[in-house]
Amino acid sequence: MNKKQVGAWALFDFANSVYPAVIVSVVFQIYFIESVVGNEAGEGDAWWGRAVSLSALIVALSAPVLGAIADRAGVRKRFMAFCVAMCITGVALFTTLEPGMVLYGFLIFLVANVGFEACLVFYNAYLPDIVPPDKRGWVSGVGFGFGYAGSALGLIMALPFATTNIQVVWILVAGMFLIFSLPTFIYLPRDGEGTMTVPRAALWGLTSFRELWGEVIAQKELRRYLLAYFFYIDGVLTAIYMSSTLASNTFGYEQTELIYLYLAIQISALVGAFLLAKPTDRLGPKKVVTGVLGLWITIAIAIFFVESKAAFAVIGLLAGFGLGSVQSASRAFMASLIPDGRESEMFGFYALCGKSSSVIGPLIFGQVALMTGGNQKLSVMSISVLFVVGAFLLQRVNDPKAAEAAA
Fold it and tell me: For residues 367 and 361, what is the distance between their CA atoms, to the nearest angstrom?
């Protein structure tokens, strides 16, 4: 295990995590919903749900093909760099956004969010390349731990400007992502020689989706895992995408209070990622994910009965712990099921399942809010079933770690 490569890989989690924390979860979400659109009758929630869902759909449809092209043409790092540039450019363009510019804000968020989500396909594909199987849970957890540290730093930087000069926040996010991602592109392995040219691989990828899908279906444990992941990650991603508007509209959190709350949640997620990293290797990712999904089910139900800010904050900290651990263990689980030489392609299908599922959750959340006059607690209850279905389907997957132990 090359320590420089692993360190550079983990640092990319630190670099990119400022984006979901500041843009998707807290500052930009509230700015877009409340200031750009307006949310008197839930229309801001609905526009935000559409933006998140459409960007997820774009990534879902393109990720397997782009992953296959990257594997066959040997351009993984170049594709990853292009997607990072997309995200940073989109965030920088937020500085030109003003209240009332709904469609423009919708479009530039699409650019940023598609770039962010797509770059993770190629980033995650490096995990089985640079880390041996018995260390993947630990390294995945370290990566997410670094990521939540980056989220916390981003929120601290955003705090003085979120209510005074919000344009500075967008510059800080773009700058942090750019600067801290540079070591990743320096130290990660260079792109190797591909078996096809990029144009030929692109043509093959665009015309061979059925063949790509067949490669996934042929892997029994992989297809079972992706089906379970499809359901439970939808609930997780919807919680991320819609948590700020829930805290703001239902529990009365102001912008500054939200940043402090999410700062605490990032620390809780960091703790969860680190504490369950070694158990993921020792016990196997299936047991860890199953246990954490039990926590998510409890959280989703508990929110319906919560009334005070303080109680919501406690639930938020528990959700943070569950967020860090479920993401880390899920990535390690996926890495353990991928055949050699198909890392980008298979993580493309990982993104397909995650993002195509997350088209559903935010739409359900937004539409239930509209239909019930803005009752976001009912919206949360409507997505809680996703955790139950995902946990049930996960029990059909054989964990390679458990099979090793039995042998």
Answer: 10
Domain spanning 3-406: CATH superfamily = MFS general substrate transporter like domains (1.20.1250.20)
Core vs surface per residue 196-230: b (16+ CB within 10 A) or e: bebeebbebbeeeeeebeebbeebebbbbbbbbbb
What 3-state class would DSSP assign to 121? helix
Q: For residue 361, how far is the Cα from the chain centroid?
A: 14
DSSP structure class, residue 98: -
* Residue-level pLDDT at 358: 64
Alpha helices in 159-197, H assignment, sequence order: 166-187
Place 346 in a pLDDT band, splitting at 50, 70 and 90: confident
CA distance 298 to 307: 16
> How many Cβ atoms sit within 10 Å of the Cβ of residue 406?
7
Encode pLDDT of 200-234 as tens digits: 877 777 777 677 778 777 888 888 999 899 889 88
Q: Produce one character per residue of 59-70: b if its CB has 16 or more CB atoms within 10 Å, e if not.
A: bbebbbbbbbbb
User: What does the pLDDT look like over 387-403, one tens digit per residue?
Assistant: 889 999 999 998 776 65
